[in-house]
Amino acid sequence: MKIFRLLALMMALLLTVAACGSDDAGSDRAEDDVDDGGAIEQSEDDDTESNGAVSSSREKLEIFSWWTGAGEEDGLIALIELFQEQHPDIAVENAAVAGGAGTNAKAVLASRMQGNDPPATFQVHGGAELNESWVAADKMEPLNDLFEEQGWMDKFPQELIDMVSMGGDIYSVPVNIHRSNVLWYNIHVFEEHGLEPPTTFDEFFEVADALLDAGVTPLALGDREPWAATHLFETVLLGVLGPEQYEQLWTQELSFNDDQVVEAVEIFKRMLGYINSDHSSRNWQDASQLVANGEAAMNVMGDWAKGYFVNDLSLEVNGDFGYVATPGTEGMFMVVTDTFGLPKGVDNTDDVKKFLSVLGSVEGQDAFNVLKGSIPARVDADVSKYDEYGVDTINDFQEAELAASLAHGSAASEGYLTRVNQEMNIFVTQQEVQNFIDAIEAAAGDL
Length: 447
Ligand code: BGC
Hints:
The protein is an alpha/beta fold. It has 17 helices and 14 strands.
């Protein structure tokens, strides 16, 4: 039943997105096929049959994601190029739908899955987003054979294999591990004001007050898409609760009414007193840009922000910007893993498996992750290819206590996340702590 409610919710969201006509709405599916150089030309129109119905038979290898534009698409393009070098005979269609954290792409995907028109392969977070949305609805093919054949069983950390498995079968291939509990800061601004990056909430507020006195916006936020506020909030939750109790929220062993959750919401509310006033008109890239140009000093974002800082803004890791774990989360690692699987009902199954094989190879992971800002999901990737941030993060991942992200689909069902994002939108404006707590507790039935 949850699945049907989720699909209905996604459809409603999709209609809203279409109605809003936002400039990055789901309608602007990337048209830029990456099939130059020897690939077989396909008819552009062969998806639509004479009766207007959309056929699920697509000869092009359609790769569906939300990696478009600044800081997002470089890794994907590199991966597709590598794939095309190895398989010049397979035409690829980059079917990316703009919108951070899959804001629009997930709605488009839900409507296509419901209409039995799946893309050949699609980006999906390991954990609940994969398992509860698609595997439980019997929409995915198991990939155990591919994992065996490629010798991958000991090449991915067991925690990641668990995140992409259900009922003993494996359903997708992780391409990366992003860390989401990262506080980025502008080194020049910190040096100019004699500040150290904060590691606790107390330090955060001390530093934030000093920055405010100096006329610098302490914390950048871009919550035009509400997930960015949920993202900040979940790092506060982790910082207050620690990994074990944070995990208990998703298993319903700990209630959202718990005093510590209330404390986390209070801290989060206090943080909102230090953000840029135009936060609701910015997306995550725009907010990161404030930190890059020194208008703001810090932001909390996953390490896709590093891809943006380095690839798009040519900033230097540990020269222009630095990074620490978000307050209270040192030694903890909020995991976001992007994965790709094989939906049921796809015609070009062999081509999809070839793509997944490249994506899961050492070469594929290193081509992608060096640019994406994430670390390789494989344990045997070539560490020498990564910058200082990448090497630190690869080491941290091995030592840290892991936690699953809510904002990025792993910790809880898509239905619950959608409710939290809606309530978050209201909270950021009204800042009524008890109302927010009541609302996210009331939604817990969707967990
Ligand atoms: C994805 C990242 C992506 C980020 C911003 C996350 O949900 O896992 O790959 O860069 O959203 O769009």
